[in-house]
Write a structure and sequence with these properties.
Elements lengths: L2 H9 L7 E6 L4 E4 L7 H12 L2 H6 L1 E3 L2 E8 L3 E6 L2 E7 L3 E7 L5 H17 L3
Antiparallel strand pairs: 1-2, 1-7, 3-4, 4-5, 5-6, 6-7
């Protein structure tokens, strides 16, 4: 399965993730929803936040140029909120999954979908 298929089918295709991206730890974008442009700099800051969430908690998490208030941050997952929507990010061995939800999607539903795909990728070595 291609990385784009994971975004289109396993994330956005569930109806529980609005837009999504999968990036490598080097900041390269492996796949994303059209028009959802996570930058390499955003990915690198996000990756640093898994090791030390302090700066993200202090100044916010930026994804696709939008600022999110960090709600949860640990060495696996970082969750953020902006208005009635938010972001769920999960780090695997080689990638970072980013899923956004809007006001029509419950945060827990989005988190469940992104976390389950991360579990699968971790099991397969990614």
């Amino acid at each position: 399965m291609s990385w784009q298929s994971y975004v289109d089918t396993n994330l956005v295709g569930t109806g529980l993730v609005s837009v999504a991206a999968i990036a490598g730890h080097d900041g390269s974008i492996w796949a994303n929803t059209a028009g959802f442009n996570v930058t390499a700099d955003e990915v690198k800051k996000l990756l640093a936040g898994f090791a030390d969430p302090g700066p993200l908690r202090a100044s916010g998490l930026f994804i696709n140029g939008e600022k999110y208030l960090v709600l949860k941050a640990d060495d696996r997952s970082i969750y953020g909120k902006k208005g009635t929507g938010g972001v769920v990010t999960v780090k695997t061995a080689q990638s970072i999954l980013v899923g956004l939800y809007n006001e029509k999607i419950q945060p827990g539903q989005c988190a469940n979908v992104v976390e389950k795909l991360a579990d699968y990728l971790i099991e397969t070595g990614y």
